[in-house]
Amino acid sequence: MTHPVITRSEAVVERHGVRVLDPFRILEDPAHPETAAWQEAQDALAAARFAELDTAGPLRLLASLERPAIGLPRAGGDRRFHTLRGPEDEQPVLIVTVGGEERVLLDPLELAADGTVGLDGHSPSPDGRLIAVHTSRMGDDRCALRVLDVDSGAEVDAPDPVGWVGDVAWLPDASAFVYSRDGELWRHAPGTPWADDVRVLAGQGVPGAEYRLSIAGTRLAVTLVHGSNIRSDVFVLDLATGGRTDVHIGRDVLSTAFFDADGRLLLLTTDGAPNGRVVEAGEEEWRDLIPESGDVLYDVAVLDGGVLAAHRHHVVSRLTLYPVDGPPVPVALPGPGTARLGGNGLVSFTDPVTPPHLLRLDGTRLVPGPGPAPVPVPGVEVRQEFAVSADGTRVPMFVLSPAGAEGPLPTVVEGYGGWGVSWPPEYRAHRLAWVLSGGRYAWTNLRGGGEYGAEWFLGGMRREQQNPIDDFVACARHLTDLGLTSPELLAATGGSKGGLTVGAAITQAPDLYAAAVMNMPMLDMVRYEEYGVGGQWVDGFGTAEDPADFAALVAISPLNRIRPGVRYPSALLTVLDHDTRVDPAHARKLTAALQDAGSKAVLRRKAESGHGGSSAGRARDLHADHIAFLAGELGLKGNVAGA
Fold first, then answer.
1. Which residues are 65's β-sheet partners?
2. What is the chain's alpha carbon radius of gyration, rounded to the nearest angstrom?
3. What ranges in 509-615 are assigned the alpha helix state H?
4. Are strands 101-106 and 346-351 parallel, antiparallel or unpaired?
5. Per-residue model confidence as pLDDT tens digits over 156-201
6. What residues contact residue 594 under an 8 Å CB cut-off, 6+ apart?
7. Are 176 and 153 spatial neighbours (Cβ–Cβ below 8 Å)?
8. Using H for helix, E for strand and C for coil, what is the string for 163-205?
9. What backbone phi and psi angles, to 5 degrees, belong to 23?
10. For the segment 31-46, what is each residue's pLDDT rounded down to a tens digit?
11. Of 51, 63, 53, which Cα lies nearest the Cα of 635?
12. How far apart are CA 405 and CA 271, in angstroms?
């Protein structure tokens, strides 16, 4: 495969007596004429490659697997608000229910007919008369905030750009709300100019801060999540006096603070409990409401009669009701899957073959809730496996196979491993599309995620990032050892932090994979701090300014492990033209390095999408590219033409 050539430079990164070559430095600058010409040639190369592939078949199959998706309702007075996306909808619409009657309150297609504007969040006022809505364009992480009159649907306040999405906390009388803008908290009274807003909290010097807010009277509970997602600060502001009470600050503890109906400050926290607990945070002492257990506590919902808690047991959800008086009571779920909790006893449940749907707690059992009934996908078997990593750690993964299939099949193994993000069993159309085409699909639960609590999370971050790479490689080897696949039939895939995991795996164990897909990937860990918002992730990745951190970053950085004469897997790297989180320079530089080393690599740019998401059609288009590429590389001969 003839590939475009970029001039190699003599650029070097030198830190702490270590010199690291950086020959493709020019590709960090998209405006440089040579970079622009190189990118144009890469676009032509990708177009020619995909002209040889069948993407129409995967598109049809993906479309056939779309199911109605209803969001957990939120209450405002006697009104209920939820999102709903039908199988043919480009974006979810916002629905309001009044007196049992539903109507569309906001359809993003009315804001942009091409589907490029999406609904990121909504927060109704306590009386339900007004609602604050976050929207973003083309998956941009930055959003706009607007206020709607619920009865008329008219805008009370035109959109105001506020940057990163955060919570909105309405005052109890609905006269105003607190929101985040550019790392600060502001109070806005609907119907007044945004320029007249009052600053409630100045910036706290935390890059990439995200605020979670809860309010009781004039007390505002603030959870400030650091950009690394390794720690959160919790404090309470008195909106009347301006006073502040710190709960915990500056420690590697993750908490979410919220008030219950009685105005008690509760914390879902890892403080003193790596697997999580719920405490009442009194001024003098904390009192356990839900003590730590052997399973990971990840979600709670306060009900009139107690607290409903969701734990993960080996990644699978378990529900328990903790009554005000009496012992805990298990609440049975429909099967091994994932539950998310909402208000009024509503639960969203999904598993790998069943799309998300709502259930309702009736006493101590779950019954069907509002919204469409789920339609499971037939013909797919699900199993959980455990691999053994390099240091002896057991690593879970879930494997989907065609029903009754035996022997090795073309297999995709997917990984992430970072930021405390868990990968539980849930419905994903792209995984099912691969299996219904005749292949196997596995997704892994690597260290750096939140599947086993804070220790599992920290075991894959900072200087421990070789662990999730080892975990991922171990999972791939386990699949081959079981005879479910072979290196000639195995592909690795991951996006964002998962792109780093995959890039590191294929450069450390290149003979284990035939192909790889890296979507919006981080790949140049030696210079990641220099790109876009990368500097805000230092607490999670480490910094080149620290000698030990730098050594760890060089060791895992895929870009810096490419060597001539080594056969690397065929690679597809996809970048999104509105990605404001991970700079496409990562993918450009690794593409050049792989091609320069004699390996097949394709760089594919996708339009009108960003790191924060895209319309349903654009997401299907991206997944169809991945499926078509991997089917071609692994020789998948099944029903890839569609259902």
1. none
2. 25
3. 538-541, 547-556, 585-596
4. unpaired
5. 998 887 776 578 999 999 999 999 988 899 999 999 999 999 999 9
6. 562, 568, 571, 600, 601
7. no
8. EECCCEEECCCCCCEEEEECCEEEEECCCCCHHHCEEEECCCC
9. -70, -15
10. 999 999 999 999 999 9
11. 53
12. 46
CATH topology for 67-170+179-202 is Methylamine Dehydrogenase; Chain H (2.130.10)
Q: What is d(CA 619, CA 73) in angstroms, rounded to the nearest whole number?
A: 25
Query: What pLDDT score was predicted for residue 639?
Result: 46
**Dist. CA 567–CA 559, nearest whole Å:** 15
Secondary structure letter of residue 129 according to DSSP? S
Residue 473: what residue type? V
The CA–CA distances, whole Å, from 587 to 141, 518, 602 equal 19, 8, 10
d(CA 523, CA 553): 11
Amino acid 640: pLDDT: 39
User: How many Cα atoms occupy the beta-carbon half-sphere of 180 within 13 Å?
Assistant: 23
Residue 61 tokens, joined: 């199959």
In angstroms, the CA 170 to CA 187 distance is: 9
**pLDDT at residue 641 in the model:** 36
Element (H, E) at 473: helix 466-481
Q: Which fold has domain 38-62+377-526+570-634?
A: Rossmann fold (3.40.50)
Give the whole-angstrom CA distance, residue 602 versus residue 609: 19
Q: Which residue has the tokens 């078949």?
A: 57
Give the dihedral of Cα atoms 638, 511, 464, 532; nearest 10 deg. Answer: -70
Burial of 332 (0-12, 13-18, 19+ CB in 10 A): exposed
* Range 372-400 burial, b when 16+ CB lie within 10 A, else e: eebeebeebebeebebebeeebebbbbbb
What single DSSP character describes residue 581? S
Predicted pLDDT at 642: 38
Taking residue 1's Cβ as centre, other Cβ atoms within 10 Å add up to: 12
pTM of the model: 0.95
pLDDT for 164 equals: 66
Sign of CA dihedral 560, 563, 566, 567: positive
Tell me which residues of the chain have a pLDDT lower than 50: 639-643
